[in-house]
DNA sequence: GCGTTTTTGACAATCATTCTCGTTGTCACG
DNA sequence: CGTGACAACGAGAATGATTGTCAAAAACGC
């Protein structure tokens, strides 16, 4: 039942790319970047790899209004994002208070195995004007 | 700049339906229900109406993993949802602490015009076993 | 090397949502 | 009450991201 994760050129390429780029990018976006670099990786593989990484908790997935999934390599551990509506700039924020609040509220209703998603949108200083 | 919202049979139908049903439903779902009731409303119109209501803040939109937008008429004011992964049961929860926290964090980074989305997922008592 | 098993990737399929554009219904005003 | 302007409607086509398919290629253990 354990899937012995094999090391492949494509997987390395996706990981390496994610390590370099800043901010969130869509699967299609990442795929295009790989092609520009000369890496020959299929779109299908990019999707699969990203899903795998997301399942493994190594990258974050965001679903902004607009229908595209955005992926981003980000720091370990649980955190949330503050995203600028204008330029897309992203700031990672930690919210211990929120974590415990979410857990408490869930417990009050008898919910277990709790997770949550939280995103904050706003206009950053540069885009506010 | 003001769009004089006209009162139409279709709009009433969608609103009325939302007032009756419990929980979240997709646009397609609502459209099917309207047809069963004998209301003849186009799918396009359902989408447009839902978008309008969502913009007006009269209904909530949720984007669960799965790609379908779910709409729900819910209580006035800002609140969040605690959703069961198993049966989809939804509980509305208010989190004043979270609201102020989000605002504070955003302000710290110079962000203005802030909004946020928060969803908590878990297993409800019935589904936990 | 060799065989087994996973992974890959081109292409087709899916499916919610959006667009198009001619028709219809509302509303304001005469 | 009539009428004209303009928003709303709706059927079908279009869009576009994501997922499924399956034969060929690559990786790993021996």
From TrEMBL, chains A, B:
Enumerate the Pfam families for this protein.
FUR
| InterPro entries listed in its UniProt record | FUR (IPR002481), Fur_C (IPR043135), WH-like_DNA-bd_sf (IPR036388), WH_DNA-bd_sf (IPR036390)
List positions binding Zn(2+): 84, 87, 124, 127
What are the protein's UniProt keywords?
A: Cytoplasm, DNA-binding, Iron, Metal-binding, Repressor, Transcription, Transcription regulation, Zinc
Q: Name one GO cellular component term.
A: cytosol
Required cofactor names = Zn(2+); Mn(2+); Fe(2+)
Q: How is the cofactor bound?
A: Binds 1 zinc ion per subunit.
Q: Which GO terms describe its molecular function?
A: DNA-binding transcription factor activity; transcription cis-regulatory region binding; zinc ion binding
Q: Where does Fe cation bind?
A: 78, 99, 116
Per the record, the major location class is cytoplasm
Write out the GO biological process terms. negative regulation of DNA-templated transcription; regulation of secondary metabolite biosynthetic process
In terms of superkingdom, the source organism counts as Bacteria
Location in or out of the cell: Cytoplasm
Assembly and binders = Homodimer.
Query: Which family is this sequence assigned to?
Result: Belongs to the Fur family.
Q: What is this protein called?
A: Transcriptional repressor
Q: Which organism is it from?
A: Micromonospora deserti
